[in-house]
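Proteins fold reproducibly. Consider a sample protein:
=====
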Amino acid sequence: MIALDEKITVARLLSKRRWTPKLLSFRLARDPGFRFAPGQFARLDLRKPNGSPVWRAYSIASATWDDHLEFYSIIVPGGQFTSLLDKLEVGDEVMIERAPYGFLTTNRFADGRDLWMLATGTGLAPFLSILQDEASWRRFERLVLVHGVRESAELTYREEIAALRDHPLWSDVGERLSYQPVLSRDRLPQALSGRIPALLDDGSLEARASLRITPEHSRVMVCGSPDMVRDTHRALIAKGCRLSRLAAPAQIAVENGW
């Protein structure tokens, strides 16, 4: 890591993993002084050929104890940031702000029995970090991860999610995690079909999980496209849940995935 000033450092690209032509994960070297809570995001900067900066916010997918920072991105054709990201090679530089941001964290909730994590696309990233935090496994009796995408090839990190149940720090409660894929343009036997908000409205998602969403027992985190976040929020309000605020803890926490 190279220090630029008290707010920004330069990190080296350690690796890239391409899931599909439009989806990739990448890892940056982590400054030992960079601290974050699971669910938070970092601000990254790449430079155009003329030297002008392009900043973007990315949720952190790695564990708080990893020696790297992992991020999950969609490559937008012609996108100012992702076009530069797509061309990066191992060893290239990425600027990163020293401070993390965001409130999609479990500490904004009062205690509850069940933690629902509802994601579309790269909105999965913050939940990968939350599920690598032992406190999440000890605090909640049920952990329900729902990942909605268009096509089955976009159901990334499935092996990593399955392996979480056997992690030595919480393998004694590994059965608490349920993973539910959702496809809107494809079919798989284990996947539900449609959009997450509609599956909440008709009860299909709760039926598949064998678990009801209630204000008393449920804490629900939502991350994805603005339309998905808006519609899912509406569906949860219809179930009696309310947006959680630091001054008034409730049941819902939301964040737009882009």
Summary: The two ends are 27 Å apart (CA to CA). The chain has a mean pLDDT of 96. The first strand starts at residue 2 and ends at 3. The first helix runs from residue 80 to 87.
